[in-house]
Design goal:
It is a single chain. Helix 1 crosses helix 10, helix 2 packs across helix 3 and helix 3 runs antiparallel to helix 4. This protein is α+β, with helices and mostly antiparallel strands. It has 4 domains: about 100 residues, 3-Layer(aba) Sandwich (Rossmann fold), CATH 3.40.50.20; about 70 residues, Dna Ligase, domain 1 (2-Layer Sandwich), CATH 3.30.1490; about 120 residues, D-amino Acid Aminotransferase, Chain A, domain 1 (2-Layer Sandwich); about 80 residues, ATP-grasp fold, B domain (D-amino Acid Aminotransferase, Chain A, domain 1, 2-Layer Sandwich), CATH 3.30.470.20. Strand 13 and strand 14 form a beta hairpin. The chain is globular, with a radius of gyration of 21 Å. The protein is about 30% helix and about 25% strand. Strands 11, 12, 13, 14, 15, 16, 17, 19 and 20 form a 9-stranded antiparallel beta sheet that branches. Strands 5-4-3-6 form a 4-stranded parallel beta sheet, sandwiched between helices.
Length: about 400
């Protein structure tokens, strides 16, 4: 074992619940610190499993299965990386001494749009978009009248924009209800209807809550979404001093209320005169993939340092940088990638291919990361590099 100056003893055994592309980078960061890692997911060969010491395939929404795996491995830390979890089991295990990052309660609150929105508005008084809840199609219609159109309809429990619909006219409501219910996680029929905001910028403020309760922040990350899912991000986002100060105050208020330690991805809408709270993830954020090229310490390393109680010195942006997702265009069971050589011809460019075993239309399969002389150049390079990657059925007739 290695003992650091502040009495943090390494290595630790870390069990990751969710093994996608973000989890993969968490595992890599953990292994660089000598930790033993166990990656869990619902299917074999998930990205984080490819680099972990051990892996487990299970239904993480099944409390009995989840408890069995955690008791089997006796990890020092349990790190949720997705929302689809048996959170009541995590709370039970936490009461028995299992350490959940940041806490089981924080995991529970942030996986439900209604709970985190209620906490932000009722407990903390933060400004958000206007919102209403609905448990039926009739209630949805009434809520749309109250909020006004256009409005955004979402399940209270989902991920990566699944089930989200922009309702422009009353004729869209039936389909919006169907989309939200069919794509909701779990059996809940509750949905949220949000005011459609006109904003200048949407950002993620990566907020690191340390073991002593203090918060530190990464330079803000701008991002663009489509159907509720991130498409590109860039750092640093251009905020004025007032906007940045307000975002930091609001982010700290939420993370302090949730407690625990680790990195939180806190999302805001920015207008000329307002900073409006949107959502929060108690873990590394997809828009933060850009920090793999844009910061001296990336978001995954920051998460590990915070949860292990290791020092975090100065965090800085190393220059204008951008990310652009690489999406599958078709459903494919046996995939291969073409065009990597062409993508890497662009200067200051990196390509991450996540290693997902199959593809479906719109699935995030990789990301292009670029640096430029300015943000505009970095964004253009990321776009061009991502477009060079083709995801095809293996042994296709594609001409290289």
């Amino acid at each position: 074992m290695i003992q650091t100056e502040n009495n943090v003893i390494l290595p630790k055994t870390l069990l990751l619940l969710g093994s996608g592309e973000l989890g993969k980078e968490v595992i890599i960061a953990a292994q660089r610190l000598g930790c033993k890692t166990i990656a869990c997911d619902r299917y074999k060969g998930a990205p984080a499993m490819q680099v972990a010491d051990l892996s487990e395939v299970l239904d993480m929404t099944d409390g009995k299965e989840l408890k069995k795996i955690i008791n089997k491995h006796q990890p020092d830390l349990v790190i949720p990386e997705i929302e689809a979890l048996a959170v009541n089991t995590l709370k039970e295990l936490e009461s028995e001494g299992v350490k959940v990052i940041p806490t089981a309660e924080a995991t529970s609150i942030t996986m439900n749009r209604d709970l985190i929105r209620n906490l932000a508005v009722n407990d903390l008084g933060l400004e958000t978009a206007k919102f209403e809840y609905a448990n039926s199609l009739e209630e949805l219609k009434e809520a749309c009248h109250l909020i006004g159109l256009p409005a955004v309809v979402k399940p209270i429990m989902s991920s990566s924009g699944k089930g989200q619909t922009l309702v422009k006219t009353m004729e869209d409501i039936d389909q919006a209800w169907k989309n939200a219910i069919e794509n909701a996680r779990g059996n809940s029929k509750k949905i949220i209807i949000e005011e459609f905001l006109v904003f200048d910028l949407e950002i993620t403020l990566l907020t690191i809550r340390q073991k002593d309760g203090s918060n530190i922040f990464c330079p803000p990350i701008g991002h663009m979404q489509k159907n509720g899912d991130y498409q590109c991000s860039w750092q640093p986002a251009e905020l004025n001093a007032m906007q940045l100060t307000k975002a930091k105050e609001m982010a700290a208020a939420v993370t302090n209320k949730l407690g625990g330690c680790g990195l939180f991805g806190v999302e805001f809408f920015i207008t000329k005169n307002k900073v409006i709270f949107s959502e929060l993830s108690p873990r590394p954020h997809d828009t933060g993939l850009v920090t793999l090229i844009s910061q001296n310490i990336n978001e995954f390393e920051l998460h590990l340092r915070a949860i292990l109680g290791l020092p975090i010195n100065h965090i800085m942006n190393t220059g204008p940088a951008a990310s652009r997702v690489i999406l599958a265009q078709d459903e494919l069971k046996n995939i291969e990638y073409h065009g990597l050589d062409n993508a890497l011809k662009f200067p200051n460019t990196e390509i991450l291919l996540f290693g997902k075993p199959n593809a479906k239309k719109g699935r995030r399969m990789g990301v292009a990361l670029t640096k430029g002389k300015n943000l505009n150049e970095a964004k253009k390079l990321a776009q061009k590099a991502s477009e060079k990657i083709q995801i095809l059925e293996k042994n296709s007739s594609y001409l290289k």
